[in-house]
Specification:
This protein is mostly helical. It contains eleven helices and no strands. Helix 5 crosses helix 6, helix 6 packs antiparallel against helix 7 and helix 6 runs antiparallel to helix 10. It holds the Pfam family Yip1.
């Protein structure tokens, strides 16, 4: 108490002299802690960064995993299965829309292009071109000597049809992407060209006539119908580029399609074409004799 000498202690006392209940030990109770449970007031509050780290780590790790999964998925059959998942009614509807176009074919696809129809249409065109080209070659031979099948004609038909259906849409899509078109879709381009080949099936079935002018007329009609089909459906997509580029692309598309029609006529339905081996170099065809040999050629192809 030596350090407190010279000081007075002052105590302030309530005037009534009642300090209230001061025994704090009677109201002490233990309660469960709610620190680990989110309350209704802080449910929508963002969590601190320390608590967000597991989610961020999961997102970051899944990003790299998703890329590797997508790479594997791209090279798997399951990736391409979705483009063959169509029913018969959808295929028939699209074939009818290709032969009798009343609306934009891309609207008929409705964002769900398929490769099933284009594949089988192209395959059918290949075999019909081979069959009718063989008949045309038989007619050009005029019955001289033994007639042999030319399977190079089958390979030529496959290379022409499959190559045109695969490469031209791919190149068109790449050019459109190069010029900044956002509406270009590779699968839609393949579907458009694939279903556009449907017109060549009836054309090939009637173009093996010995009358060359009639064959030219059939191939010309097929070219006109399919060119209008391509022009009508590609114009909205190509127009996404500038005016000059769109005109050039449309001209190139029609020119390449004309090249396909000319190749079909010369390689498969011309009596003096490279497909007609053993044909005479000149002279007018004999319609009566060729008509008789046409029946023999059909019977030969059908195995009668």
């Amino acid at each position: 108490m030596a350090g407190r000498q010279g000081y007075d202690v002052v105590v302030d006392v309530d005037a009534e002299g009642d300090l209230g209940h001061t025994d704090l030990h009677d109201d002490l109770e233990f309660h469960d802690s709610t620190f680990d449970q989110p309350t209704s007031n802080n449910r929508n509050k963002p969590l601190p960064p320390s608590q967000q780290s597991p989610f961020l780590n999961q997102q970051t790790s899944s990003r790299g995993g998703a890329q590797s999964i997508s790479r594997r998925y791209l090279w798997s059959l399951a990736f391409y299965q979705q483009f063959f998942d169509v029913d018969t009614s959808a295929i028939l509807l699209r074939c009818r829309a290709a032969l009798f176009p009343r609306q934009n074919f891309l609207d008929v696809l409705d964002g769900n292009p398929d490769l099933y129809g284009p594949f089988w249409i192209a395959t059918t065109v290949v075999f019909i071109l081979f069959m009718t080209g063989t008949i045309s070659a038989y007619l050009a031979q005029k019955g001289k000597g033994h007639f042999a099948y030319d399977f190079e004609l089958l390979g030529g038909a496959a290379g022409l049809v499959y190559g045109y259906t695969l490469v031209i849409p791919l190149g068109l899509w790449a050019v459109l992407k190069w010029f900044g078109s956002e509406s270009a879709n590779l699968m839609e381009c393949w579907a458009l060209y694939g279903y556009g080949n449907l017109i060549w099936i009836p054309v090939a079935l009637v173009s093996w006539s010995p009358l060359s002018i009639l064959n030219y007329a059939f191939v010309g009609v097929g070219f006109a119908l399919s060119a209008v089909f391509l022009f009508r459906n590609l114009y909205p997509v190509v127009s996404a580029t500038d005016a000059k580029t769109s005109r050039i692309l449309l001209v190139v598309v029609i020119a390449l399609h004309a090249g396909l029609a000319i190749a079909i006529k010369i390689l498969f339905f011309a009596h003096q074409s490279p497909a007609a081996k053993g044909g005479s170099a000149g002279g007018a065809p004999d319609p009566i004799g060729d008509s008789e040999r046409a029946g023999d050629a059909v019977a030969m192809l059908l195995g009668f």
